[in-house]
Amino acid sequence: MLLHQILLQETSLRMDLEKTVRDLMKEFEQMKRNQAEVKKEQEILNQELIDNITSLRTENQQLKDELEQIVNSGMGTCKCDLTNITSDFHNFKSDFSYNVSLSLLDFQKEINSTTANILHSSDDKIGAVSRDISDMQSAFKNLSGFIDRDRNFQASVNDDILVQQQNISNVIIETLPLDCKELYMNGKRKSGVYTIYPWERSDPNYRPVQVYCDMETEGGGWTAIQRRINGEENFNRSWTEYKFGFGTPYGDYWIGNDAIHQLANGRNLSLHVTITPLKDGFVSFKTYDHFYVFGEDQNYTLQLANPGNGNFKNDALLEGHDRYKPIGMQFSTFDVDNDNYYRNCAAVYLGGWWFNRCHNAYLTGPWQSDKWRNPWYPQYTSGRHVNGTSMLIKSH
After folding, report:
1. Considering just the CA atoms, what is the radius of gyration of the chain in Å?
2. pTM above 0.90?
């Protein structure tokens, strides 16, 4: 607001200066016109003087002619008169010359006086404008100094604001929820989509993540890292897509392997797996009390142990032949093959997973299709029988 007022004042000063300069220019133009008029009047007077002199010369010549006629006619009696006439003529001529000289002198004085007045007036105007310009320059200089001080003050205020914003941001970050369990502990009891912050603010990977929170299953506070409810998302995705995640927590999605590792890093997590069959809708589930995923430098290697509650007919992840178990396996996608099979299991079974050679269970096959083979063997041998899946994690 203060800077705006200063700018308005500067604009007003500039407008006043421009008006003064315009007025001076008008007076200069008027002075030129006055000088032209004086010159014109002088020319008229000069012409009148020339005309008078010409007339006098004509009269003088006429007088001479008359005198010559008188002399030539022998009118001696008129000598006295001639002498008088000659004397009168010389007196007239002398008086006329004197009067003309006085007129010329008076006219020259008038011209000099007018010119002096014009120059004096112009000097006064120029002096006044010069003083105005000097005053305005001083005002501009003072104004510039004030503006510089104000800018420095504004910069200082802005720095203080940035510091306060950073402090507030740090406080907010410290209170932002890490996962759905923290939301549950803070009083959130309704299942749905929430925003969590797995990374610290200083982490280069920092970003908020939208997830589905299950606030009802086994005490609530579960964070869904994988969810399929309508088949709208294709889970046959690239390594990069699995790294950062895809889909929407309002429907089908994979949270992202980076986020899974960040949520697991330095914490004890449980995994809760569910499959909803197409036929009767009775949800099958299995809980594991130890779940961990390493970072990308180890290709998101999976650790899974300590099976807990569940109603599956079998444990397809930990039971069965070792060559099908995902334990200790790196993650694979159709463009990055980390399995133990001579072919790329992810490319064959059309979904990313911790394949071995290849699997007894995986939850990322083609939706409700026979191409999704053995989602959970032997209870679910085809994706055609599956109407939903989820992988939920929670710290303990």
Report:
1. 55
2. no
